[in-house]
Amino acid sequence: LCDRRQxxxxxxxxxxxxxxxxxxxxLFKFNEDYTYSYDTPYSNExxxxxxxxxxxxxMFVTYYTNDWGQGDWKEENIIYTIVKITEDELILxxxxxxxxxxxxxx
Length: 106
Known about the structure:
This protein is 6% helix and 52% strand. The protein is mostly beta strands. An eight-stranded antiparallel β-barrel has the order 1-2-3-4-5-6-7-8. The two termini are 16 Å apart.
């Protein structure tokens, strides 16, 4: 179990998580160098970028560049709140939506 003092380490070193429910099949991979990838195998879409963790707020932000924007509109970010993280489960809230999304360790 990752307690709040360890959450940064757990997120950064946690490896690959597979989505369940409405995000089934999506793979969220965190790397030690603070890069990540978020794959959607069924549509061949991959979001790659960097992430920053805010341990006092139990949240992290992903930063990436989209394919459709121009200039400053190409830079995107998503804020996630970590609802719970254990050895086998990562529960997130995408703060742009009210949805809770659940990932299992792959």
